[in-house]
Design brief:
Subunit structure: Part of the FGAM synthase complex composed of 1 PurL, 1 PurQ and 2 PurS subunits.
Helix content: 25-40%
Main location: cytoplasm
EC number: 6.3.5.3
Catalytic activity: N(2)-formyl-N(1)-(5-phospho-beta-D-ribosyl)glycinamide + L-glutamine + ATP + H2O = 2-formamido-N(1)-(5-O-phospho-beta-D-ribosyl)acetamidine + L-glutamate + ADP + phosphate + H(+)
Strand content: 25-35%
Shape: flat
Enzyme class: ligase
Number of domains: 1
Order of helices and strands: EHEHE
Oligomer: single chain
Number of helices: 2
Distance between the termini: 6 Å
Radius of gyration: 16 Å
């Protein structure tokens, strides 16, 4: 089994209240080195066999059409998870 990861993030111009809340919490807990936080989504898609370019292309299409809201989110990365255990 192979695994494809699709990362989705809010577009830069979209406010991210969850990211702001996390940033404030980090600061309160002493993690002052972080200037800001943006929170996104990660999807892990398993495929039969090895991850091929065709699977990556299909995952990107799924990310753009189904997994994200294209009005407010961007698919920022699609890649094979090399740490996935193959059966």
């Amino acid at each position: 089994m192979g695994r494809v990861v699709v990362d989705v993030m809010p577009k830069p111009e979209i406010l991210d209240p969850q990211g702001k809340a996390v940033a404030a919490a980090l600061s309160r807990l002493g993690f002052d080195q972080f200037a800001s936080v943006r929170q996104g989504k990660r999807f892990e898609l398993e495929v039969e066999g090895e991850v091929t370019q065709e699977a990556l292309d299909a995952a990107r299409a799924a990310g753009e059409q189904v997994l994200s809201n294209p009005v407010i989110e961007d698919v920022v990365a699609v890649y094979a998870d090399e740490t996935a255990v193959t059966a």
